[in-house]
Design goal:
This protein has 159 residues and is of the alpha/beta class. It contains four helices and eight strands; from the N terminus they run E-E-E-H-H-H-E-E-E-E-E-H. Strand 6 (100-104) and strand 7 form a beta hairpin. Helix 1 (36-47) runs antiparallel to helix 2 (52-59), helix 1 crosses helix 3 (63-82) and helix 2 (52-59) packs across helix 3 (63-82). The structure holds zinc ion.
Length: 159
């Protein structure tokens, strides 16, 4: 009996869910489905240059599972690029991690910053630089499955 999949933690949510070769209507293209966990695996390993172990930890999965996901992801993307297929990004066993929340010590304004955009330097409301991470944000995210291990890896590149 197959074991139930545990959700993979992802931080990217692409705005474009389709990538296609220019000039060919979508209906005439073969479409490959790239799941969100596959995209996240490529983002961590190929874009951020994480070693597989670290990338696996960031996604809350085993290294073997990560290896399978990244292999499948690369194959799909290569197939799309080499054979002019469309890529549709969708689905997968994932849980989304929300952006980071910051709070201003001067005016108590709270706001959210998406991952990967760097730490804000000033409060957008009063321009004070007295800002810090909102406490409720620590290890925050939708929890299910095996739970959350403190988010240590998640924060490393983002703090
Ligand atoms: Zn402020």
């Amino acid at each position: 009996m197959p074991r139930p999949q545990c959700p993979r933690r992802v931080m990217c949510s692409p705005e474009a869910e389709y990538f296609k070769p220019r000039g060919i209507p979508l209906v005439a293209l073969e479409t490959i489905s790239l799941t969100l966990d596959e995209l996240e695996a490529m983002r961590l390993a190929d874009l951020n240059g994480f070693h597989q172990e670290k990338a696996a930890e960031a996604m809350g999965i085993s290294r073997q599972t990560f290896g399978r996901i990244i292999e499948s992801a690369r194959k799909k993307v290569a197939d799309a690029l080499c054979n002019s297929k469309a890529l549709r990004i969708e689905g997968g066993e994932v849980e989304m991690v929300a952006g980071r929340r910051f709070v201003c010590a001067s005016c108590s304004h709270e706001w959210e910053v998406p991952y990967g955009t760097g730490r804000p330097t000033a409060c957008p409301q009063c321009k004070s630089s007295q800002i810090h991470r909102a406490l409720a944000d620590r290890g925050h995210g939708r929890r299910h499955g095996r739970g959350w291990r403190g988010g240590a890896c998640v924060g490393q590149k983002e703090q």
